[in-house]
Write a structure and sequence with these properties.
With 62 residues, the chain is mostly helical. It contains 3 helices and 2 strands. The protein has one domain (3-59). The structure holds zinc ion.
Length: 62
């Protein structure tokens, strides 16, 4: 595994765990810079159970 792949792996892991929208965007930017295609992880709203893109879930109205 080369360095880019290792960076991408960490960025992807951070992306799925990022609770802060700004942190999420930074991880996303890292993957874009590396030119890595990543599956968008879906998030579930802890309040209403709605499932969707993390960015959408964060800003939706329950
Ligand atoms: Zn909700």
């Amino acid at each position: 595994m080369n360095t880019d792949e290792r960076i991408a792996q960490h960025a992807a892991a951070g992306l799925t765990r990022a609770l802060d929208p700004d942190a999420y965007r930074h991880f996303q930017a890292i993957l874009e810079i590396l030119g890595v295609d990543y599956p968008t992880p879906l998030a579930e709203c802890p309040v209403c159970g709605r499932v969707g893109l993390p960015e959408r879930i964060r800003i939706h109205d329950c």
